[in-house]
From TrEMBL:
Gene3D superfamilies documented for this protein: NAD(P)-binding Rossmann-like Domain (3.40.50.720)
A single GO cellular-component term on record: cytoplasm
Protein's UniProt name: NAD(P)-binding protein
PANTHER family given in the database record: NAD(P)-BINDING DOMAIN-CONTAINING PROTEIN-RELATED (PTHR48079:SF6), PROTEIN YEEZ (PTHR48079)
Organism: Lophium mytilinum
Pfam families assigned to the protein according to its UniProt record, in alphabetical order: Epimerase
Molecular function GO labels: aldehyde dehydrogenase (NAD+) activity
Occurrences of domain NAD-dependent epimerase/dehydratase (ranges): 5-85
SUPFAM superfamilies, alphabetized: NAD(P)-binding Rossmann-fold domains
Amino acid sequence: MGQNILITGAAGYIGGSVLADFISRTNGLIKAENISAAVRSEDQVQALSKLGVNVIQVDLRNEAAVNEAVLRNEIDVVVHTASAIESRIVSHLIKALDQRRKASGEEVVFIHSSVTALFATEGGWTHGEVKDTDQIFEMEKQIGDSHPVRETNILVIEQAKAHGVTSLNVVVPTVYGRGRGEWRKLSVSIPAYIRTSIKLKLVYKFDKDSSPPAVHISDLTALYALLVEKILHKEPVPNGENGYYFPMAHRAPWWDVMELLAEGLHARGLVLEPKAQIWPSDEMAAEELGFPLLYIRAMCTATGELVPINAYRLGWQPKWDLERFLGSMDDEIEAVQELDKVKPTVFDAILPFSNS
């Protein structure tokens, strides 16, 4: 019998795509019968129930419910995509894995999902260029701010170490492409620009250009699968304080993207001008895009000097590059028109205070 894997956020864009990737594999140790998918609602349970995996409706903010779900389903590996900002969810999952470790006597693993915007000046990063092989944990602690994502990154490593749990941190960049999950199929950034542009009849860009790290959703899910396969094979992988992974395939030149969206939307008669305009204010941008005002610059104008090493050393080979990315903007527009049916909830936990 193989080790059991729990994917949190399995109805989300990344989690759902990870789940679809995992269950589509016919070789290796990842097997559908060993996968559990954590979701929030009964509707999501029904949507995922046909996949041949164990679907669990659980409130991850409820410590007792998380502990019961992990122990009852004998979870050995958690792939956590549900939230990068809620430290109590991380704490509940790690503590539950500790209980599972004590019961089984075997290694347990927690794979966290963070965001690359933290490692740019706009995200409070003060150390300049950073490789994922650097001592990032100590660097994050030195910054000492109250950013919820950075606090959660630190908590992952500290609590995992204290509870005998092996931890890894996949630091997610800008993600694009159609998701393969059963519920949410659209990413955050580019679809937000598209739906907002259609609403306002104009495409807006920020007054500062940026080129953040980027990755296609299929390449990102391939990294999660590579990590899990190596864990199931009991191969050594960088973990704990050394277990950061930057899944960066290329950069996303944002002004180029906005101009391509303006051309594509104008050709469809969806906006009035084929050129992008400058946002009148950050406040307007945050309100219209649905992004937290407190982090709007980190999300939309940051570049960062990230250098990915760990994933490539393990054999990760992304199939999407800059040219292919820029050539996919028409498909991004079509995807929003076809698939924009589920309200984004990724910022629900921080929007109330960050926009005040």
